[in-house]
């Protein structure tokens, strides 16, 4: 296809209206140069993807899955219980979306107006960050927040999450409308950005670089939208599972089959997470279908996560090998079968020639007529082989060129893409991907990427493809421009970034030189200049400026590697500041090679209009365009032609270390001249299939000197060839002293130093110079090793400290979660046993009712029979509770000492004995006798059973069992407290270990390193105090010259208003201002007096504090919560003793009424009633006022129940009054009854007795409810604390990484940089000066091991 068939406008296809161009410009500026740290990218992607696992861990799918389990993998999905707190989350979402809209509008306006100021650059960076977060880790949490506001499916059109809020009603209308509007913006924005906000460069520098084919990211976003909407809106577990499993299966398949990321590790990581989510969904479906309440399934769900991850990783790796192997196998098979398309086919002994001409002779006619059936059924054309199953496989099969860029590998890449174009001729994305491969893996100056981008334009590309075409157009255009980086040749945002970074590099370069000048000036002139203890502060300032300049230069060169100006600026920096001759030579050579290549390409016809008709482009297009036709061609010929072409178009310049420029052979090919011994078709026929062999001369047969030339620039060479004229300049030497053109200048420089020996007459040989250089490098390395040793020791120790710190936080969260879980598991049993004393007392009262029928007159039998039936029902219920709760719980007290005195009858022998038991033995006996007596009928008790030892057990111990089980309840409380306190003691120990670690970190790790490095700096820099005045003056002069050179460059940039652009003018003015500002800086006495290590101490200690705070909070939370739980448990046990005392009052009041022969307390019931009532009054007073417990009136969760809302049925006429009021009512009525029974006999019809009997049942129910409230307080509080420690643990782990990178490693690197600068400064002293001063010479040659004390005083 000719280029004229591609509609172009100014070299590009018109892709849309002006608005689309502005939008593409904004998007391009966002995508281009959007460098994100690979480690941070991995963290963001991992955090984003594991949110899918949270759906599978939803508690609605399991019987016993903890509610916090889903927040482990997606903590951002937590929703507050209060609507007011939810509005805060909604406000955060609104803020993010508004910031994104405002930033996008600012950037768009800047592009439209052509004015891209500093605020626009800030807006662009903000837009990048917000878009990255909104599309990844914040996408599903923010979408859930917005969906919650429109889930109007509750009763009365209310929100499901917040039933008290009605949609579109009154004050809530605004929130609903805002949420709808935000979703209209938020959802489409992320869908669009998912298709284009991608790094697509296949050089794998970015871990997140991916292939745009397949639109996997867009599908991922759409599926996440569906999944989030279903789980938020539907709330039906079956429907949710029906959506979750297919979506995670689709995501796993897409990641395994398409492998969109260039880095295999990223594909495997994401495939593993998706597979883990899929298998977890399967387990969730099984759990929901079974309906099991077992803890086993939640455990299996957790175990499935790593198993699924491993399965996904292995499946991804296996799929990659399978895809590539299948493609290569089919491609080989197809290449072997292609020659058969032009050969003879035989069938049944009849030879049919496909290209044969059938004549009109009778024999010929008879031949084909006789074989008509065979001819019409014979298949002479081989069956077409479909190499690829989908478009992404084309690119997957070419990923080997990431690691192998040989000519053979690139030829195979071409063949694979050619087959892809034959199979998918209308796919624009495939053309774009091939263009990117050519741009990244072929030599500079290749015009073929532009051709395939133009071809993609003709294929009716979709929106995302049009954007990538737009982006590739700009990238290719900028790659052609190795110079002239200005606002007219760069994207406007890239230009502003370029200018900002270039000014930053020059500014810090100049700042470094100024700091060196200040140091040398201080040594030479300052009154304290001969005190080495004042030197390290200058060293710190020098190293900081040097590091900033280095960072700027490296970023500049990584983004614009073809700028000769940048390469030479960095080379000068390496020479002047770092004394790195080898590095400077490398970058200088690179700049010269680029310049030479530019010159050659400018003089050839390669860049004219007919360049696409040249040999390289024509051969490739011919091969790629016509590979889909059924053309007869020789495969071996093509390979020979291609291999020969590779030899000429892909020279050794691909080697990153050696740049080789093709001369004669490449020039002939670029000019379009015919290779020797092989005439080529006319250019008019270049698009036709090539069917004959084309032979190029083998490069190996040509002497390399005839067509290759390696040009190196030796920046440290001091001699100039005789042919060089006087105008040729020689690069300045290392450090502050230059290398001179003439030997007399060397002698003059050497004479500047006091007592400096005259230079030698003879020029040392090259071998001798190399030996001296190696010796000097050895001394330098030895000194560096000595100076950096304390820092390396610090690094090892601080890693050990981090390991101890992580051990503390991991142990803390493990102990904390274990203690919370243990408390939750045991609190229920402990709460149940607090009811045992009341249950035992009620059992005694029921047995008392059983034995009364034999002593009641016949007229009282009906009423007693009703009471007997109630007693049987009551004791049966009590015994069920005994066997379910009490016996099993008290089995834990089996080995307790026997301290409870129990009266045991030996009837018919009238002997009673005292037997000592523990609580477990007593409860077993109560249960055994209670079951046996409760199973007896009315007739059994018609005769007196006072001689039954079981009955006598209850009657004789009626006053004993209640207090005995109260003691057992206190023992259970103490056991629960001891179990909780064990974890508290462990946490106290960890807290002490944390304090010791932090203090040891400061005094054992940080302080020694700082002191040792400071001492080494002073010892080394003390050599400057030995320097004579004249060498210092000349060193200062050299530095001044370099400062003036850099300042002139910055000022010249300020005056160069290229193209009249406002941005050039603004950036230039900024550079001029920065130069003047830096030149006017002075070093005053305050700077000299500053501590050189104070800054490092503050940063390091701030890091330790940042480490210690979350760890301390992590320790405090479980300790505080454990103590609060203990207080609540004690309060529950203490206050609920009122339940037993009220039941004892009722039992004793009944005994005061009856006075029949069955009594076990002759003449004593009134005394015991008075005793129990007095204890009840005192206990109730203590419970309300907070004596020996937490006041029940001060517990928020109990206030409503105890003061107003406790039911009172039926004793109070079905009223609802507070529990405290009911107890006080009970106490008043019981007191009135006691007063009357003391003075006269009271009958069973007494109103007070009947009231307290009826009210006691209601009070027991309410006090059981108090138990439940206390348990909920403890469990919910522990749950909140558990969430808090999980969050604090995450913060602790994150702060570990943050502190290590921002504080610890930064401090170590800063000290290493200072030590490096120390060595650089020392070796910047001119060699003749070093040789003339014995102390310095000895110090340098010994690697800093020896030094002479006592600097010579200046006269």
Automatic annotation (TrEMBL):
Residues 481-599 form the TmcB/TmcC TPR repeats domain. Residues 604-628, 718-776 are annotated as: Disordered. The keyword Methyltransferase does not apply. It comes from the Eukaryota. The chain crosses the membrane at residues 86-109, 129-150, 170-192, 213-233, 239-257, 269-290, 296-320, 802-820, 985-1006, 1100-1120, 1140-1157, 1284-1303. The keyword ATP-binding does not apply. Keywords: Membrane, Transmembrane, Transmembrane helix. This is TmcB/TmcC TPR repeats domain-containing protein.
């Amino acid at each position: 296809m000719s280029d004229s068939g591609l509609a172009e406008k100014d070299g590009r296809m018109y892709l849309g209206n002006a608005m689309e161009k502005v939008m593409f410009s904004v998007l391009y500026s966002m995508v281009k140069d959007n460098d994100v740290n690979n480690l941070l990218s991995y963290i963001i992607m991992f955090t984003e993807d594991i949110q899918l696992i949270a759906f599978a861990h939803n508690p609605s799918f399991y019987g016993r899955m903890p509610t916090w389990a889903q927040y482990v993998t997606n903590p951002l999905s937590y929703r507050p219980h209060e609507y007011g707190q939810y509005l805060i989350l909604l406000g955060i979402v609104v803020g993010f979306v508004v910031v994104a809209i405002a930033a996008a509008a600012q950037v768009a306006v800047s592009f439209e107006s052509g004015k891209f100021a500093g605020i626009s650059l800030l807006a662009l960076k903000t837009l990048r960050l917000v878009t990255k977060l909104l599309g990844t880790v914040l996408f599903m949490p923010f979408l859930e927040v917005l969906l919650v506001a429109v889930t109007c499916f509750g009763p009365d059109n209310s929100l499901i999450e917040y039933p008290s809020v009605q949609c579109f009603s009154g004050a809530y209308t605004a929130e609903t409308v805002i949420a709808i509007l935000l979703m209209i913006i938020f959802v489409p924005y992320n869908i669009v950005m998912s298709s284009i906000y991608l790094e697509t460069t296949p050089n794998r520098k970015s871990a997140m670089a991916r292939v745009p084919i397949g639109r996997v990211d867009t599908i991922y976003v759409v599926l996440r939208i569906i999944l989030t909407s279903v789980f938020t809106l539907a709330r039906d577990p079956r429907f949710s599972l029906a959506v979750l499993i297919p979506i995670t299966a689709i995501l796993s398949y897409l990641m395994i089959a398409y492998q969109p990321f260039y880095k295999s590790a990223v594909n495997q990581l994401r495939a593993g997470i998706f597979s883990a989510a899929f298998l977890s969904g399967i387990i969730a479906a099984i759990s929901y279908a079974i309906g099991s309440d077992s803890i086993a399934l939640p455990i299996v769900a957790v175990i499935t996560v790593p198993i699924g991850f491993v399965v996904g990783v292995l499946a991804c790796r296996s799929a990659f090998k399978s895809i590539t192997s299948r493609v290569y196998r089919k491609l080989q098979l197809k290449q072997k079968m292609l020659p058969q398309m032009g050969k003879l086919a035989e069938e049944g002994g009849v030879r049919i020639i496909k290209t044969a001409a059938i004549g009109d002779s009778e024999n010929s006619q008879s031949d084909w007529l006789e074989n008509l059936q065979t001819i019409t059924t014979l298949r002479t054309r081989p069956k077409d082989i479909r190499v690829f199953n989908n478009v992404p496989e084309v690119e997957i099969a070419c990923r080997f060129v990431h690691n192998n860029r040989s000519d053979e590998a690139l030829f195979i890449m071409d063949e694979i893409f050619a087959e892809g174009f034959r199979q998918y001729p209308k796919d624009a994305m495939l053309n774009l991907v091939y263009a990117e491969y050519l741009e990244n893996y072929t030599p500079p100056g290749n015009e073929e990427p532009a051709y395939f981008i133009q071809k993609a334009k003709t294929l009716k590309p979709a929106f995302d493809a049009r954007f990538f075409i737009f982006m590739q157009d700009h990238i290719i255009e900028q790659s052609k421009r190795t110079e002239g980086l200005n606002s007219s040749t760069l994207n406007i945002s890239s230009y502003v970034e370029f200018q900002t970074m270039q000014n930053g590099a020059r500014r810090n370069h100049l700042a470094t030189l100024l700091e060196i000048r200040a140091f040398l000036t201080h040594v030479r002139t300052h009154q304290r200049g001969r005190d080495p203890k004042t030197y390290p502060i200058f060293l710190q300032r020098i190293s900081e400026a040097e590091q900033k300049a280095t960072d700027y230069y490296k970023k500049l060169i990584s983004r614009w590697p073809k700028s000769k100006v940048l390469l030479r600026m960095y080379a000068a920096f390496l020479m002047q500041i770092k004394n790195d001759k080898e590095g400077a030579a490398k970058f200088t050579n690179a700049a010269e090679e680029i310049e030479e290549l530019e010159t050659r390409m400018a003089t050839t016809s390669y860049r004219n209009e007919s360049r696409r008709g040249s040999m390289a482009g024509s051969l490739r297009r011919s091969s790629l365009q016509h590979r889909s036709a059924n053309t007869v061609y020789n495969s071996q010929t093509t390979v020979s032609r291609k291999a020969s072409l590779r030899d000429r178009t892909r020279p050794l310049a691909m080697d990153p270390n050696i740049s080789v420029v093709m001369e004669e052979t490449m020039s002939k090919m670029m000019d379009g001249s015919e290779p020797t011994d092989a005439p080529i078709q006319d250019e008019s026929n270049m698009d036709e299939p090539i069917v004959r062999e084309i032979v190029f001369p083998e490069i190996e047969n040509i002497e390399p000197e005839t067509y290759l030339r390696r040009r190196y620039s030796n920046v440290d060479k001091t001699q100039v060839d005789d042919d060089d004229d006087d105008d040729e300049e020689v690069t300045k030497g290392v450090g502050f002293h230059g290398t001179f053109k003439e030997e007399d200048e060397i002698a003059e420089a050497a004479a500047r130093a006091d007592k400096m020996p005259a230079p030698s007459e003879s020029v040392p040989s090259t071998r001798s110079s190399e030996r001296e250089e190696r010796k000097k490098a050895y001394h330098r390395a030895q000194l560096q090793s000595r100076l950096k040793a304390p820092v390396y020791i610090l690094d090892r120790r601080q890693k050990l400290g981090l390991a101890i710190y992580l051990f503390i936080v991991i142990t803390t969260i493990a102990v904390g979660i274990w203690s919370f879980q243990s408390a939750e598991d045991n609190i229920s049993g402990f709460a149940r046993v607090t009811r045992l004393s009341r249950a035992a007392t009620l059992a005694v009262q029921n047995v008392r009712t059983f034995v009364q029928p034999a002593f009641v007159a016949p007229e009282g039998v009906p009423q007693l029979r009703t009471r007997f039936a109630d007693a049987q029902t009551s004791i049966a219920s009590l015994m069920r509770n005994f066997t379910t709760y009490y016996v099993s719980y008290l089995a834990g007290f089996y080995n307790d000492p026997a301290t409870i005195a129990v009266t045991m009858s030996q009837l018919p022998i009238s002997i009673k004995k005292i037997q000592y038991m523990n609580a477990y033995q007593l409860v077993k006996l109560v249960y055994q006798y209670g079951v046996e007596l409760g199973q007896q009928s009315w007739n059994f008790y018609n005769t007196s059973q006072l001689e039954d030892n079981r009955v006598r057990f209850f009657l004789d111990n009626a006053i004993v069992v209640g207090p005995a089980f109260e003691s057992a309840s206190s023992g259970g409380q103490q056991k629960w407290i001891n179990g909780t306190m064990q974890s508290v003691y462990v946490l106290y120990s960890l807290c002490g270990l944390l304090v010791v670690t932090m203090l040891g970190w400061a005094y054992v790790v940080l302080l020694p390193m700082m002191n040792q490095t400071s001492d080494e700096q002073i010892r080394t820099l003390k050599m400057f105090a030995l320097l004579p005045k004249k060498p210092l003056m000349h060193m200062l002069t050299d530095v001044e010259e370099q400062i003036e050179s850099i300042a002139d460059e910055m000022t010249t940039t300020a005056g160069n208003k290229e193209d009249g652009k406002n941005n050039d003018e603004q950036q230039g003015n900024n550079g001029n201002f920065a130069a003047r500002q830096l030149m006017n800086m002075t070093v005053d006495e305050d700077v000299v007096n500053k501590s050189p290590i104070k800054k490092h101490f503050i940063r390091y200690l701030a890091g330790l504090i940042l480490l210690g705070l979350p760890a301390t909070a992590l320790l405090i939370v479980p300790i505080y919560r454990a103590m609060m739980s203990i207080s609540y448990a004690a309060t529950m046990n203490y206050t609920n003793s009122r339940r037993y005392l009220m039941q004892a009052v009722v039992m004793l009041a009944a005994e005061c009424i009856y006075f029949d022969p069955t009594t076990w307390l002759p003449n004593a019931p009134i005394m015991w009633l008075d005793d129990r009532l007095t204890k009840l009054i005192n206990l109730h007073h203590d419970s309300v006022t907070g004596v020996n417990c937490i006041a029940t009136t001060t517990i928020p969760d109990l206030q409503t129940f105890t003061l107003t809302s406790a039911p009172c049925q039926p004793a109070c006429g079905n009223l609802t009054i507070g529990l405290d009021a009911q107890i006080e009512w009970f106490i008043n009525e019981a007191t009135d009854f006691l007063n009357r029974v003391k003075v006269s006999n009271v009958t069973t019809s007494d109103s007070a007795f009947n009231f307290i009997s009826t009210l006691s049942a209601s009070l027991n129910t309410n006090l059981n409810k108090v138990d439940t409230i206390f348990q909920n307080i403890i469990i919910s509080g522990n749950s909140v604390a558990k969430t808090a420690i999980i969050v604090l643990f995450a913060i602790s782990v994150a702060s570990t990484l943050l502190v290590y990178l921002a504080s610890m490693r930064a401090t170590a690197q800063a000290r290493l940089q200072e030590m490096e600068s120390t060595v650089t400064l020392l070796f910047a002293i001119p060699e003749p000066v070093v040789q003339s001063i014995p102390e310095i010479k000895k110090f340098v040659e010994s690697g800093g091991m020896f030094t002479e004390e006592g600097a010579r005083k200046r006269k």
